[in-house]
Amino acid sequence: MDAATAQSLDRAAEIVSRHARDQARAQTLGLRLSHVTAATEPGYQHYTPSLSTVLAGRKRTLIGGDDQVWGREKFIITPVGLPLVSSVVETDPQRGFLAARWQLDPNLVAEVAAVMPRKAHPAGRMDRLGMWSPALADAFARLLALLDEPEHIPVLGPLISREIVLRLLQTDQAPRVLAALDDGDPVVPRAVSLLTDRMAEPWSMRTLAAEIRTSEPTLYRRFKEATSMTPTQYLKRLRLGEARHRMVVLGESAAQAAIAVGYRSVPHFTRDYRHLYGASPAADGTRLREQLRRGGFGGLPGSGDAQPPPPSEH
What we know:
Elements: H1 3-19, H2 23-27, E1 31-36, E2 43-47, E3 50-56, E4 58-63, E5 66-70, E6 74-78, E7 82-90, E8 97-103, H3 106-114, E9 129-131, H4 134-145, H5 153-168, H6 174-179, H7 187-197, H8 205-211, H9 216-227, H10 231-248, H11 254-261, H12 266-277, H13 281-294
Antiparallel strand pairs: 1-8, 2-7, 3-6, 3-8, 4-5, 4-7, 6-9
Pfam families: AraC_N (PF06719), HTH_18 (PF12833)
Keywords: Transcription, Transcription regulation
Protein name: AraC family transcriptional regulator
């Protein structure tokens, strides 16, 4: 990492450490800040379209079959709602674990992309993790700096937000950002919306493609480009995350949760659950409910952003 980028990310980390518990102010900039003092166990989160960063420490992120450990040298773009499993695996001795997630506004992305020339990008598999450029790191640090001057947010916030989108579209992650826009034919956002809102239905590639009026190959290709998962993998992750939430927060049994999210076979659900979370649904649910009762969560049992305490989310 070059010196200018490192300096910008150091500045960003200092700001996050000061404001991590002021989520209301952060939300005015589309930010969600995290400060964790110890490693956490793997658990489910559902990210909205966003730029996710780690500013101190390291985390593990599992998206589909893509399992990576990363820190402040990288970032992740999620252009559509994305179910993933993550955990804090390393904390900085002085700062702990610091992270910031910035909401990506698809309308803003479309607006900036419309006036930028489209660059050709090499064909083939794109790395899920993006590399910071000095200009992107500087713009992101300046956005965070507005937390120290909230009176300037209404004027400078929109300007810096546009600059961040512009800088993102100049990185190797530009195809992932643009994939969700689909040039006026939003195949991926429509598929994500259907799978999320109607996850209990017996979806197949054929029925999903028919519902959004596209071909199966087009759906598969665009969905994989945007999410690193097939629609089938995406639906499985959604169902398992929601089932975990229902068992832990709502107190449902494994069988009740499995049926509610669309599994037709409880043994099938148990196998998938154990493969992802490393324990049976009954054992995992009992343990996490006890943690919830004691108030001891490090941040990950819920099915969405609202479940874990905001300062512990990562």
